[in-house]
TrEMBL record:
Recorded GO MF terms: phosphatase activity
Gene Ontology CC annotations of this record: cytoplasm
A Pfam family: His_Phos_1
Protein name as catalogued: Broad specificity phosphatase PhoE
Superkingdom of the source species: Bacteria
Gene3D superfamilies: Phosphoglycerate mutase-like
Taxonomic lineage: Bacteria, Bacillati, Actinomycetota, Actinomycetes, Streptosporangiales
InterPro entries: His_Pase_superF_clade-1, His_PPase_superfam, PGM_Phosphatase
Native source species: Streptomonospora nanhaiensis
Matching SMART domains: PGAM
Length: 211
């Protein structure tokens, strides 16, 4: 008989960011009121599931998203750097259509396959696969939640589905407070699921900066 284990990758909720800064790994970027509601809806989605472990990126927005899950299941939040946001040289900037024509910006965009403006996709996959294996072992036969960020989760999914890593950012299926679920039979990945428990709270218009 095989053993089924599920690792859920939960993206954080909406961030309070009125200036539209690409916040990346910067501290002190917290969930907005809407983001707090998103985190609550995500936690509700897990109700009735056998959550044995809860891990989170150390960034504020991820920890705040993890807290309702911790409260729901009485599990401690374990912080792990492998779940952190992808490194990005544009961190702290506010990018507009005008600034995107700046030579200082353009010179960083020469290679979309690596990518040249941030942490290599292959490195993101390596750290995400590493933590997923650790969490799967801890939650063996049960379920676990890892709170992370859009690009790391999307890279983990593309690697799991054996797809090329370079992609169009506007086509990522990893919305705010969404859940990407990896189901394993023993050590073998058998399915990838995706759901958006907080879809009713999504705002219309351009995507929020950062991830």
């Amino acid at each position: 008989m095989s053993t089924t284990t599920v690792v859920h990758l939960l993206r954080h909720g909406e961030v309070h960011n009125p200036k539209g800064i690409l916040y990346g790994r910067l501290p002190e970027f917290h969930l907005s009121e809407n983001g707090v509601r998103m985190a609550g809806l995500a936690a509700e989605w897990f109700t009735g599931r056998d959550i044995a472990a809860l891990y989170s990126s150390p960034l504020d927005r991820a920890k705040e998203t993890a807290q309702p899950v911790a409260d729901e299941f009485g599990v401690a939040i374990r912080l792990d750097e492998r779940l952190i946001e992808a490194g990005n040289t544009f961190q702290g900037m506010t990018l507009t259509s005008r600034s995107m024509r700046d030579p200082e910006v353009l010179r960083r965009l020469y290679n979309p396959f690596r990518p040249s403006w941030g942490e290599p996709y292959s490195r993101i996959v390596a750290r995400m696969v590493d933590i997923i294996k650790v969490v799967r072992k801890e939650a063996w036969g049960r379920e676990a939640v890892c709170v992370s960020h859009q690009l790391p989760i999307w890279m983990a999914r593309r690697a799991a589905e054996r797809k090329r890593l370079w992609h169009r950012p506007d086509r990522r299926q990893c919305n705010l407070a969404s859940i990407t679920s990896l189901t394993f039979e023993d050590h073998r990945l058998v399915s990838v699921g995706y759901t958006e428990p907080a879809a009713e709270l999504y705002r219309k218009g351009p995507a929020m900066p950062g991830a």
